[in-house]
Write a structure and sequence with these properties.
With 561 residues, the protein is mostly helical. It is built from 28 helices and no strands. The N terminus is likely disordered.
């Protein structure tokens, strides 16, 4: 059955009744435990019904009203019996907040003028939103268990990200919380404060989504909100990082910045991104200073890298971003430091090194035009510093080959021929690495470079690597070093051989067989004739399979004898 729309005060009598009933049964913990479980079951049922209720606005409003009342009841009851059954009702409250979040996809499409022809329905909707915002606000400003505060702040963050601006700016409870941000920063615990700050940033940034220009009140409000966070970040970067508590505070601040950036990437308009970019730009020198002094603290560096990756998608201050990325490049170019990390095999340090390489890979991609790193510097970093010392660290090795491939694919026209040849050689040598996934990466990278850049068609490749590539691939196939890559290796062999099939059959194969001292002249001749001279791929693959199997059989029989 339907019920009247919830208002800011409509559920107060019910809440009082709930509190009174709690006090009368406080001496019956077993019965209260049953109540808690029953309430939890109801909340779970509501969550599962969400997709069906969303199809009926009337049913939706009835459901939402009940969930708000359930939250008020749970919060009041939890406060009344905190010393006995609080943990049971904490689970109920958390479940109720999560149930509300399950309707985020529906709230996204709702405006204050939604179904303007049905004013009663619009009034119900806004009344419910107002009630929910009040419940969340009361939860945050009062002392509640950590799990409850986290769930309330996460729901508020979700609400600020998905709700339409025309509705969000009319929720007075959200505005009141924003005005108390400074006070709450001193009272909320970090797991609650992080989503709360992201929510407050969203409540200021997202109301300008869709606007081509920034309203003065939006700009001034966000700058006023954001300034204390930047001041805290600047203070943190000047402190001694050896103290764990100091690093934890810095990590927390950077995680807040990351969350705001990710919200903007998902929901923000160019105007809101520009406002954040302008507001954060003064902090870039502090981030640069932090990066230079925190290489020995992997926990800190991991978060810094996440922040830099997200900033690259948001920021417009190209010159300062380039300065930060040059520090990353310089840190990696320190050969002694990289060797020490790879030699010591500390998992955190290696993960940091891999993250730095992945960051450069993202930057060097074709889609990123904000930065101006020199491709040649990055290629030399891979070939001369990382790859030679990463043979025992397959993840770092794979990331380095991926970076090398990205540089060649996106910047081959900017690289001197010598660098292209050195990069090609590195990828060819990488095929023989004992790590299967690294070898496969090199094979695929070479194929894609030929598909998109016609690498094997270049005269420099044919004169320098055509013969050695064919020999290397056949050696790997016959040695069965990576048998699961057999088909990909034969594909590569065919792609290289077809650049000059006549030379492959008449010159390369005879010389390749002649170089084997383990086979007799007759056996070499049999293998050569069996290979044939087919130039279509199916026949070439079938002949190569036969050639490799026969060669393996002959060589093994020689070894056994």
């Amino acid at each position: 059955s339907s019920s009247s729309p919830p208002t800011a005060t409509s559920s107060a009598p019910a809440a009082s009744a709930f509190s009174a009933s709690a006090s009368t049964v406080q001496g019956l913990p077993q019965e209260l435990a049953f109540v808690s479980r029953d309430l939890s079951a109801v909340v779970q049922i509501y969550s599962r019904m969400a997709p069906y209720l969303a199809q009926s606005p009337q049913s939706m409003f009835v459901y939402l009203e009940h969930v708000v009342k359930l939250l008020r009841f749970g919060l009041d009851l939890e406060a009344s019996i905190a010393n006995s059954l609080g943990p049971d009702f904490i689970g109920v409250i958390v479940s109720a907040f999560e149930s509300l979040r399950s309707y985020g996809h529906w709230i996204r499409h709702v405006d204050i003028n939604f179904h303007a022809s049905n004013q009663e329905q619009s009034a119900k909707l806004f009344s419910w939103l107002h009630s929910v915002a009040e419940v969340v606000a009361q939860t945050l400003v009062k002392e509640h268990p950590l799990q409850v505060g986290v769930s309330a702040a996460q729901f508020l963050h979700h609400l600020c990200c998905v709700m339409r601006p025309s509705c969000l700016h009319r929720l007075t409870a959200v505005g009141a919380l924003r005005e108390r941000t400074t006070v709450l920063c001193g009272s909320l615990r970090p797991p609650v404060l992080k989503p709360f700050l992201s929510a407050m940033a969203g409540s200021l940034l997202f109301p300008i989504v869709g606007q081509s220009t920034l309203a003065a009140e939006n700009t001034s409000s966000f700058v006023e909100f954001f300034r204390p966070l930047l001041e805290k970040f600047a203070q943190f970067t000047s402190q001694d990082l050896s103290a764990v508590a100091v690093r934890e505070n810095g990590i927390f601040l950077m995680q807040v910045f990351v969350d705001i950036c990710q919200d903007l990437m998902a929901e923000g308009h160019s105007a809101s991104k520009a406002l954040f970019s302008d507001s954060f730009s003064p902090a870039l020198p502090f981030l640069k200073n932090l990066l230079e002094k925190s290489f020995n603290y992997p926990d800190l560096l991991t978060t810094e890298i996440r922040l830099i990756r997200t900033l690259l998608r948001i920021m417009t201050d190209q010159q300062r971003l380039n300065g930060i990325l040059m520090i990353v490049l310089n840190l990696l170019s320190n050969s002694a430091r990289v060797q020490a990390i790879l030699r010591d095999s500390q998992s955190q340090d290696i993960a940091t090194l891999e993250s730095f390489i992945s960051l450069l890979n993202m930057v060097m991609g074709r889609g990123n035009t904000k930065v101006d790193l020199q491709p040649l510097d990055v290629v030399r970093l891979c070939i001369n510093v990382v790859i030679p010392h990463a043979s025992n660290n397959p993840d770092v090795l794979k990331a380095s080959f991926e970076l090398l491939y990205t540089c060649m694919l996106s910047h081959m026209d900017k690289l001197p021929e010598e660098a292209v040849l050195e990069s090609t050689k590195a990828l060819l040598v990488g095929i023989r690495t004992p790590h299967l996934h690294v070898s496969g990466e090199c094979v695929r990278n070479l194929q894609m470079l030929n598909d998109r850049k016609r690498l094997f068609h270049a005269p420099a490749f044919k004169s320098a690597f055509w013969v050695s590539t064919l020999q290397l691939v056949l050696d790997v196939l016959i040695a069965k070093e990576h048998n699961s890559l057999r088909e990909e290796l034969i594909d590569l062999l065919f792609t290289v051989a077809k650049q000059d099939f006549q030379a492959f059959f008449n010159e390369f194969l005879p010389k390749y067989l002649a170089s084997s001292s383990a086979l007799t002249v007759e056996e070499k001749e049999v293998l050569r004739r069996a290979y044939g001279e087919a130039t279509d791929y199916p026949s070439f693959k079938r002949n190569t399979d036969g050639f490799v199997d026969d060669a393996v059989h002959l060589l093994r029989s020689k070894q056994q004898n």
